[in-house]
Structure to design on (578 residues):
């Protein structure tokens, strides 16, 4: 990662932290109090040592007085540390909460192009695992970094006041710790970056395989998936071991340097004490300072390692949050109200990949109440037309109009509210059946929900469930059959009954007997409503007013069922080959 990128990440983190400036200020003040009291205790200890002058020359009254001061200092230090840690926890988890909320909101603003092009597991890994790792590093930074820096500065000040020559010995040896820590930190950053990416790849594979376990078992891909997982897991193991190894040698390396500092102070101070340049009590105080002065370098070196990992994870989550959102609705965008159902596609061209053409110069005019069926071989662009009608994707050129208004000038919310959509792939959220049917109309009454379920022929199986409409299931329908899940999705549309409908192989998972009932319900529902029907089974679209036969992104035939059969073209071939 480039230096500018590190700086940019740090700047974004600070932008989140500055909202809690009062808590940060309080934490710094408490850190300063903790450091001052901690550094005051060795002075008191040294004074106590100097009162132990020899046999029969011990000033016990003075020692008891000093011990009382030490007790008060220790108690005040403990209270200050407790309040400081509470502040640090509050800041850290408030920042994490804010980042997660912003990330989740941003995901809803991202265009489907981004979500289609990135694995769900990787996105989940960024929002959950990476933010957790960032929180650990940030908490350690607040807890140890501030205190460590203040301890170094404070100790250095106290040592300079006590004895300048010995202080110079400490200062001359200390930079070696910085050099060692910097060398190791540079090495670990790249390794933690690789670790974070590989962990995201592993999460993506696990999410995909667990969610599609039935398909994996159906095609006996268990061993192949295990091998794929083992390969990723081994890569994660290698890069994690390297990152942990290099980060773990930071502390021992700096401790070795710090031991040299302590030994230097002891030897040099002993000679000065013998010559009478410093008292034994002050030397013991100085040795304590030398130990306290070097200890934060160990802590800060560990913090730097954690911060390296934390900032790598922060960069990944900010990378997600910086992805360009979908083009927002124009300020003067029109709210679509009560459309009659006029839809027009004029010279529409679109492709998912710029150098791979899909739909070119597509023209279609649909009148209110018409039932338009779209058929053709796989990959010809049927579902793409639906994505464009709903404005999940914007056309590359040309225009799509509803009621003579370009849909790019219509608010997305009002456009999609006026479409009812039933797809081949069902989606149900965790909760009860009633709430899933009400998704498009949260304020619907119980009677309306039951009427919609009856119209979709879902009421009978719902009543057979243990708790009827209060039956709770997990994400994506839990133990419900695919057909039952599809019936609930159909009931969802039946409840709203918008003026325009999109049915993308809406009865693909329903048995033949129920399908006949649903087709009759659809026929009633489609009366007076503009309907787009994507079908693979051509028997389901015989009654369509217009059938569009697509191939390679173009309409090659158009007409009703009888006229297309009589023509004996591509549609007739598809129908007779069914």
């Amino acid at each position: 990662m480039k230096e500018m990128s590190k700086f940019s990440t740090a700047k974004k983190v600070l932008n989140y932290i500055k909202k809690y400036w009062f808590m940060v200020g309080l934490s710094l003040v408490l850190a300063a109090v903790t450091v001052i009291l901690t550094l005051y205790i060795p002075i008191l200890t040294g004074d106590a040592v100097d009162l132990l002058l020899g046999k029969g020359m011990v000033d016990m009254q003075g020692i008891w007085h000093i011990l009382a001061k030490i007790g008060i200092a220790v108690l005040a230090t403990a209270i200050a540390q407790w309040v400081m840690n509470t502040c640090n926890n509050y800041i850290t988890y408030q920042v994490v909460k804010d980042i997660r909320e912003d990330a989740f909101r941003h995901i809803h603003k991202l265009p489907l192009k981004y979500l289609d092009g990135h694995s769900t597991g990787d996105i989940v890994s960024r929002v959950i695992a990476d933010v957790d790792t960032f929180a650990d590093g940030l908490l350690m930074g607040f807890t140890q970094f501030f205190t460590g820096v203040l301890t170094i500065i404070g100790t250095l000040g106290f040592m300079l006041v006590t004895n300048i020559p010995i202080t110079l010995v400490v200062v001359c040896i200390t930079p070696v710790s910085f050099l060692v820590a910097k060398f190791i930190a540079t090495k670990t950053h790249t390794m933690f970056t690789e670790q974070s990416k590989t962990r995201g790849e592993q999460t993506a594979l696990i999410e995909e395989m667990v969610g599609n376990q039935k398909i994996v078992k159906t095609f006996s891909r268990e061993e192949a998936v295990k091998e794929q997982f083992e390969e990723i897991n081994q890569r994660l193991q290698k890069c994690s071991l390297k990152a942990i190894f290099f980060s773990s040698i930071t502390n021992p390396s700096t401790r070795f340097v710090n031991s040299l500092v302590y030994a230097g102070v002891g030897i040099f101070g002993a000679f000065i004490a013998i010559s009478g340049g410093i008292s034994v009590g002050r030397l013991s105080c100085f040795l304590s300072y030398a130990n306290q002065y070097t200890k934060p370098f160990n802590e800060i070196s560990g913090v730097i390692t954690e911060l390296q990992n934390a900032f790598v994870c922060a960069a990944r989550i900010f990378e997600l949050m910086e992805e360009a959102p979908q083009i927002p609705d124009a300020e003067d965008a029109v709210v679509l109200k009560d459309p009659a159902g006029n839809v027009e596609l004029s010279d529409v061209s679109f492709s998912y990949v710029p150098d791979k053409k899909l739909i070119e110069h597509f023209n279609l005019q649909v009148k209110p109440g018409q039932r338009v069926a779209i058929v053709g071989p796989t990959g010809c662009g049927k579902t793409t037309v639906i994505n464009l009608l709903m404005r999940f994707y914007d056309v590359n050129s040309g225009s799509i109009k509803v009621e003579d208004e370009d849909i790019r000038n219509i608010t997305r919310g009002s456009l999609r509210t006026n479409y009812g959509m039933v797809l081949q792939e069902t989606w149900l959220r965790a909760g009860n059946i009633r709430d899933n049917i009400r998704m498009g109309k949260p304020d619907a009454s119980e009677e309306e929900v039951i009427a919609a379920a009856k119209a979709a022929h879902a009421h009978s199986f719902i009543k057979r469930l243990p708790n009827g409409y209060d039956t709770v299931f997990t994400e994506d329908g839990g133990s419900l059959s695919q057909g039952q899940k599809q019936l609930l999705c159909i009931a969802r549309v039946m409840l709203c009954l918008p003026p325009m409908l999109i049915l993308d192989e809406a009865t693909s998972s329903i048995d033949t007997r129920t399908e006949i009932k649903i087709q009759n319900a659809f026929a009633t529902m489609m009366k007076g409503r503009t309907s787009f029907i994507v079908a693979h089974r051509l028997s389901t679209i015989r009654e369509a007013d217009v059938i569009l036969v697509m191939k390679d992104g173009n309409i090659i035939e158009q007409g009703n069922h009888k006229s297309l059969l009589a023509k004996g073209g591509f549609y007739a071939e598809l129908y007779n080959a069914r």
Notes: The CA atoms of residues 166 and 265 lie 6 Å apart. The longest helix spans residues 60-109. DSSP finds 20 helices and twelve strands in the chain.
